[in-house]
Amino acid sequence: MPLSSDPAHGVIMLTAVKLVDQWAALERRLPIDWETTDLRLTTEQPDEIGEAARVLGPMNVGRVGDQLAVTVRRAGGASGPEAARRLFGRLDQARIWCLLEQDEVAAREPGVAPSEAARQATPVAEAWDAALAELPSGWSDLLCSLDLASSDLLPRAALLCAPINPTREPDAVAFTFRCASRAGYGVSPVMARRCFERLDAEDIEGEVSVLRVVSDTDNVATQGLVWYVGGKVL
To answer: Which one, 29, 80, 148, 152, has the greatest CB density within 10 A?
Structure first.
Protein backbone atom coordinates (compact mmCIF):
# COMPACT_ATOMS: atom_id res chain seq x y z
CA MET A 1 0.00 0.00 0.00
CA PRO A 2 1.37 3.48 -0.83
CA LEU A 3 2.13 6.08 1.78
CA SER A 4 0.03 9.22 1.59
CA SER A 5 0.91 12.34 3.53
CA ASP A 6 -0.19 15.93 4.02
CA PRO A 7 3.01 17.99 4.50
CA ALA A 8 1.06 21.10 5.46
CA HIS A 9 -0.32 19.41 8.57
CA GLY A 10 2.35 16.79 9.19
CA VAL A 11 -0.12 13.90 8.90
CA ILE A 12 0.81 10.38 7.91
CA MET A 13 -2.34 8.99 6.34
CA LEU A 14 -1.61 5.26 6.38
CA THR A 15 -1.85 3.50 9.74
CA ALA A 16 -0.19 0.36 8.32
CA VAL A 17 3.09 2.28 8.37
CA LYS A 18 5.03 1.57 11.55
CA LEU A 19 4.79 4.23 14.21
CA VAL A 20 8.58 4.60 14.40
CA ASP A 21 8.64 5.31 10.66
CA GLN A 22 5.84 7.86 10.98
CA TRP A 23 7.80 9.59 13.73
CA ALA A 24 10.98 9.51 11.63
CA ALA A 25 9.11 11.19 8.75
CA LEU A 26 7.71 13.88 11.03
CA GLU A 27 11.07 14.44 12.71
CA ARG A 28 12.76 15.03 9.35
CA ARG A 29 10.30 17.83 8.60
CA LEU A 30 10.82 19.66 11.90
CA PRO A 31 12.54 23.06 11.68
CA ILE A 32 16.20 23.15 12.63
CA ASP A 33 15.48 25.26 15.73
CA TRP A 34 12.57 23.21 17.09
CA GLU A 35 12.30 22.74 20.85
CA THR A 36 9.03 20.83 21.35
CA THR A 37 6.45 19.26 19.09
CA ASP A 38 2.91 18.30 20.09
CA LEU A 39 1.59 15.10 18.55
CA ARG A 40 -1.75 13.35 18.44
CA LEU A 41 -1.95 9.58 18.30
CA THR A 42 -4.97 7.51 17.28
CA THR A 43 -5.08 3.71 17.48
CA GLU A 44 -6.47 1.79 14.53
CA GLN A 45 -8.56 -0.26 16.97
CA PRO A 46 -10.38 2.07 19.41
CA ASP A 47 -10.26 -0.48 22.23
CA GLU A 48 -6.43 -0.40 22.16
CA ILE A 49 -6.17 3.25 23.20
CA GLY A 50 -5.79 2.29 26.86
CA GLU A 51 -2.89 -0.07 26.18
CA ALA A 52 -1.22 2.55 23.99
CA ALA A 53 -1.52 5.06 26.84
CA ARG A 54 0.06 2.55 29.23
CA VAL A 55 3.04 1.93 26.92
CA LEU A 56 3.56 5.66 26.39
CA GLY A 57 3.06 6.44 30.07
CA PRO A 58 6.71 7.46 30.68
CA MET A 59 6.16 10.36 28.26
CA ASN A 60 3.34 11.71 30.42
CA VAL A 61 0.72 11.38 27.69
CA GLY A 62 -2.75 12.85 27.99
CA ARG A 63 -5.99 11.52 26.59
CA VAL A 64 -8.41 13.70 24.64
CA GLY A 65 -11.44 11.73 23.53
CA ASP A 66 -10.25 8.87 21.31
CA GLN A 67 -6.75 10.33 20.89
CA LEU A 68 -3.57 10.56 22.96
CA ALA A 69 -1.69 13.85 23.25
CA VAL A 70 2.10 13.50 23.30
CA THR A 71 4.74 16.20 23.56
CA VAL A 72 8.27 15.39 22.38
CA ARG A 73 11.04 17.61 23.76
CA ARG A 74 14.22 18.05 21.79
CA ALA A 75 16.27 18.40 24.99
CA GLY A 76 15.86 14.67 25.59
CA GLY A 77 15.00 12.79 28.75
CA ALA A 78 11.80 10.83 29.33
CA SER A 79 10.01 12.82 26.60
CA GLY A 80 12.92 13.17 24.19
CA PRO A 81 13.16 11.96 20.59
CA GLU A 82 15.01 8.77 21.52
CA ALA A 83 12.48 7.92 24.23
CA ALA A 84 9.67 8.53 21.73
CA ARG A 85 11.35 6.25 19.18
CA ARG A 86 11.83 3.53 21.76
CA LEU A 87 8.24 3.60 23.05
CA PHE A 88 6.75 3.89 19.58
CA GLY A 89 8.77 0.80 18.71
CA ARG A 90 7.15 -1.07 21.56
CA LEU A 91 3.70 -0.27 20.16
CA ASP A 92 4.84 -1.52 16.73
CA GLN A 93 6.14 -4.73 18.24
CA ALA A 94 2.85 -5.22 20.07
CA ARG A 95 1.09 -4.70 16.71
CA ILE A 96 -0.90 -1.78 18.05
CA TRP A 97 -1.17 0.14 14.81
CA CYS A 98 -1.47 3.90 15.18
CA LEU A 99 -1.84 7.09 13.21
CA LEU A 100 0.48 9.92 14.23
CA GLU A 101 -0.39 13.56 13.56
CA GLN A 102 1.63 16.67 14.25
CA ASP A 103 -0.22 19.43 16.09
CA GLU A 104 2.12 22.29 16.96
CA VAL A 105 5.84 22.97 16.95
CA ALA A 106 7.58 25.37 19.34
CA ALA A 107 10.87 26.80 18.11
CA ARG A 108 13.75 28.22 20.11
CA GLU A 109 13.66 31.96 20.66
CA PRO A 110 16.18 33.94 18.57
CA GLY A 111 19.51 34.35 20.30
CA VAL A 112 18.98 31.42 22.67
CA ALA A 113 21.60 28.71 22.25
CA PRO A 114 20.46 25.07 22.26
CA SER A 115 21.22 23.05 25.36
CA GLU A 116 24.01 20.51 25.39
CA ALA A 117 21.42 17.74 25.60
CA ALA A 118 19.81 19.04 22.43
CA ARG A 119 23.11 19.17 20.53
CA GLN A 120 24.09 15.59 21.19
CA ALA A 121 22.90 12.51 22.99
CA THR A 122 24.64 11.43 26.18
CA PRO A 123 27.26 8.76 25.42
CA VAL A 124 26.22 5.34 26.66
CA ALA A 125 29.36 4.99 28.80
CA GLU A 126 28.62 8.28 30.55
CA ALA A 127 25.00 7.27 31.08
CA TRP A 128 26.28 4.06 32.70
CA ASP A 129 28.51 6.08 35.03
CA ALA A 130 25.54 8.26 35.99
CA ALA A 131 23.33 5.23 36.66
CA LEU A 132 25.94 3.65 38.93
CA ALA A 133 26.49 6.92 40.79
CA GLU A 134 22.86 6.89 41.95
CA LEU A 135 23.11 3.42 43.51
CA PRO A 136 23.69 2.72 47.22
CA SER A 137 27.34 2.15 48.09
CA GLY A 138 26.82 -1.49 49.06
CA TRP A 139 25.12 -2.69 45.88
CA SER A 140 26.09 -6.16 44.76
CA ASP A 141 23.80 -7.29 41.93
CA LEU A 142 21.95 -5.40 39.20
CA LEU A 143 19.44 -6.18 36.50
CA CYS A 144 19.85 -3.57 33.77
CA SER A 145 18.43 -2.54 30.42
CA LEU A 146 20.13 -1.23 27.29
CA ASP A 147 17.60 0.49 25.01
CA LEU A 148 18.69 1.30 21.47
CA ALA A 149 17.53 4.01 19.10
CA SER A 150 16.68 1.62 16.27
CA SER A 151 16.09 -2.09 15.72
CA ASP A 152 18.67 -1.92 12.93
CA LEU A 153 21.32 -1.47 15.63
CA LEU A 154 20.46 -4.64 17.55
CA PRO A 155 22.80 -7.11 15.77
CA ARG A 156 25.85 -4.84 15.92
CA ALA A 157 25.17 -3.80 19.51
CA ALA A 158 24.81 -7.45 20.55
CA LEU A 159 28.20 -8.21 19.03
CA LEU A 160 29.96 -5.23 20.60
CA CYS A 161 28.35 -5.95 23.97
CA ALA A 162 28.80 -9.72 23.95
CA PRO A 163 30.68 -9.71 27.32
CA ILE A 164 27.57 -8.43 29.12
CA ASN A 165 25.64 -11.47 27.82
CA PRO A 166 22.73 -9.37 26.48
CA THR A 167 19.28 -10.93 26.49
CA ARG A 168 16.89 -9.67 23.81
CA GLU A 169 13.81 -7.95 25.19
CA PRO A 170 10.94 -9.20 22.97
CA ASP A 171 8.62 -6.22 23.50
CA ALA A 172 11.21 -3.47 23.11
CA VAL A 173 14.26 -2.45 21.07
CA ALA A 174 16.41 -3.37 24.02
CA PHE A 175 18.58 -5.89 25.82
CA THR A 176 18.60 -6.83 29.49
CA PHE A 177 21.81 -7.83 31.24
CA ARG A 178 23.13 -8.59 34.71
CA CYS A 179 25.95 -6.87 36.55
CA ALA A 180 27.74 -7.94 39.73
CA SER A 181 30.04 -5.69 41.73
CA ARG A 182 32.11 -8.43 43.40
CA ALA A 183 31.29 -12.01 42.43
CA GLY A 184 28.48 -14.12 41.04
CA TYR A 185 26.46 -14.02 37.87
CA GLY A 186 26.76 -10.91 35.73
CA VAL A 187 29.37 -8.73 34.08
CA SER A 188 31.62 -6.49 36.12
CA PRO A 189 30.79 -2.76 35.96
CA VAL A 190 34.19 -2.05 34.40
CA MET A 191 33.69 -4.57 31.59
CA ALA A 192 30.18 -3.23 30.99
CA ARG A 193 31.62 0.25 30.56
CA ARG A 194 34.16 -1.00 28.04
CA CYS A 195 31.32 -2.47 25.99
CA PHE A 196 29.44 0.81 26.09
CA GLU A 197 32.59 2.64 24.99
CA ARG A 198 32.54 0.41 21.90
CA LEU A 199 28.99 1.55 21.17
CA ASP A 200 30.02 5.19 21.57
CA ALA A 201 33.00 4.68 19.26
CA GLU A 202 30.60 3.60 16.49
CA ASP A 203 28.03 6.32 17.27
CA ILE A 204 25.43 3.77 18.35
CA GLU A 205 23.01 5.71 20.51
CA GLY A 206 21.27 4.06 23.43
CA GLU A 207 20.02 4.49 26.96
CA VAL A 208 21.17 2.33 29.84
CA SER A 209 19.19 2.03 33.06
CA VAL A 210 19.11 -0.04 36.24
CA LEU A 211 15.87 -2.00 36.59
CA ARG A 212 16.55 -3.80 39.87
CA VAL A 213 19.25 -3.62 42.52
CA VAL A 214 20.21 -5.87 45.43
CA SER A 215 22.70 -4.82 48.10
CA ASP A 216 25.01 -6.65 50.52
CA THR A 217 24.39 -10.20 49.27
CA ASP A 218 26.46 -13.03 50.73
CA ASN A 219 26.66 -16.01 48.37
CA VAL A 220 26.52 -19.28 50.32
CA ALA A 221 26.79 -22.51 48.32
CA THR A 222 25.82 -20.61 45.18
CA GLN A 223 27.48 -18.46 42.55
CA GLY A 224 24.91 -15.76 42.95
CA LEU A 225 21.25 -14.86 43.12
CA VAL A 226 18.77 -15.66 40.34
CA TRP A 227 16.41 -13.09 38.81
CA TYR A 228 12.93 -14.29 37.87
CA VAL A 229 11.15 -11.90 35.49
CA GLY A 230 7.89 -12.88 33.81
CA GLY A 231 8.44 -16.49 34.85
CA LYS A 232 11.84 -16.60 33.15
CA VAL A 233 15.28 -16.88 34.70
CA LEU A 234 17.65 -14.09 33.69
So the answer is: 148
Q: In angstroms, what CA-CA distances link 23 with 12, 95, 124, 165?
A: 9, 16, 23, 31
The CA distance from 91 to 38, in Å, is 19
Domain 120-216 in CATH 1.10.150? The answer is no
First to last CA, the chain: 41
SS3 70: strand
Q: Name which of 213, 207, 212 is nearest 230 in CA terms.
A: 212
Per-residue pLDDT of the chain (234 residues; tens, 9 = 90+): 333 444 444 444 444 689 999 998 888 888 888 889 999 999 999 999 999 998 888 888 888 888 999 999 887 777 888 888 889 999 999 999 999 998 888 876 555 554 444 445 688 999 999 889 888 887 888 888 999 877 888 899 999 999 999 988 877 788 999 998 876 678 999 999 999 999 999 888 888 888 888 876 665 555 556 665 555 655
Domain ranges, ordered by start, for the chain: 5-107, 120-216
Closest by CA position to 197, among listed 120, 133, 129, 123 = 123
**Phi, psi angle pair for 90, to nearest 5°:** -65, -35
DSSP letters spanning 95-134:
T--EEEEEEEEEEPPTTPPPPHHHHSPPPHHHHHHHHHHT
